[in-house]
Amino acid sequence: MSKADNSLMVMENSKARSKEYEELLLRRDQLFRESGSYMTAYTQEFGDLITANFELKVECIKKKKTISYCRRRMNRGLVIDTTRMQAEIDQEMTLYYTQLKEMLDDTERAKKAGTISEYRLSRAKKIYRRLTKILHPDINKKTAENKNLMELWTRIAEAYQKSDVDELDDLEVLVRRAMEEMGDDSFELNLDDIETRIERVENQINEILTTEPYIYGEILCDEEKKQSYKEQLQAEHDDYEQYLESLTKALDEMLREGGVTLVWQMN
After folding, report:
1. Burial of 62 per CB tally in 10 Å (0-12, 13-18, 19+)
2. DSSP label at 211?
3. Is 175 exposed, middle or buried (0-12, 13-18, 19+ CB in 10 A)?
4. Domain limits, the chain
5. Which long-range contacts (CB under 8 A, 24 or more apart) does 135-139 make?
6. pTM of full prediction above 0.70
7. How confident is the prediction along the chain (267 residues), in pLDDT tens digits per residue?
């Protein structure tokens, strides 16, 4: 094989690997967007049940802390100051209250998100694919080096996650203008260590496909699995209710034996 033929083969192989890398980047970002969609759909479908279960769990934890607090005070012959007890337990429960509020907020946002038409999803994907080819920071060196381009790319990624076609349309115009102002020679392929890069993105794709929230798609796309999961959540809810009832009885009995009456208020 001549030196020229060898150089041509190397060049063609480089182009092929570059194309493969580009397609992997697009697939990774598409899967990541789908994960976000699955998370929203999952929360819309099961958010109320999951939040209700967590709320019962929080009540059980709080009840257990109450039992522990009262037992310590009674064993030492001390008066149970309900105001002080409430303040101390609430302080310990701060993280749980925060988590519960976040879950409630996430469920509410998911309900308001609605659904996105197939047309808009397809159009968003096409625009994103075009912009990826010229601006993705893993492909174009200039993106990471230029503040304006990096800001545009950040906005593109956010708009793509939301399938905001109107925003992507506007951003495509801004990107084209920015690239023209910088000159055609400003586009520099960022393909150093291509084999390492391909392996990295393949690993990222595999991680997305095998972890939450992407795997929620298996449940959401199967009515039997959805129903089964709802029944599982309902069973969990029933278990928490029974457990809370048993804790309440245990607390009442302990206080009654100690001659103490306690008025309990849940937040």
Report:
1. buried
2. S
3. buried
4. 3-115+192-257
5. 135/175, 135/179, 136/25, 137/190, 138/25, 138/190, 138/197, 139/21, 139/22, 139/25, 139/189, 139/190, 139/191
6. yes
7. 566 556 666 567 777 877 888 888 889 888 988 898 899 999 999 999 999 999 999 999 999 999 999 999 888 888 888 889 999 999 999 999 999 999 999 999 888 876 667 778 888 889 998 898 888 888 888 888 889 999 999 999 999 988 888 889 888 888 888 888 887 555 555 556 778 888 988 999 999 999 999 999 999 999 999 999 999 999 999 999 999 999 999 998 888 887 766 655 545
Task: Classify burial at 139, counting beta carbons within 10 Å of its beta carbon; exposed 0-12, middle 13-18, buried 19 or more.
Answer: buried
Cα separation, 159 vs 136, in Å, equals: 14
Per the structure block, which two tokens stand in for 82?
Answer: 């309900």
**Rounded to the nearest 5°, which phi and psi values hold at 140?**
-105, 115
Which amino acid does the sequence have at 118?
E
Phi, psi of 266, deg, nearest 5: -85, 145
Radius of gyration over every alpha carbon of the chain, rounded to an integer in angstroms: 28
Which residue's structure tokens are 């793509």?
160
One-letter identity of residue 250: A
Query: What distances in angstroms separate CA 204 from CA 8, 27, 35, 132, one per listed residue?
Result: 32, 10, 13, 17
Could you tell me if 20 and 204 are in contact, meaning their C-beta atoms sit under 8 angstroms apart? no
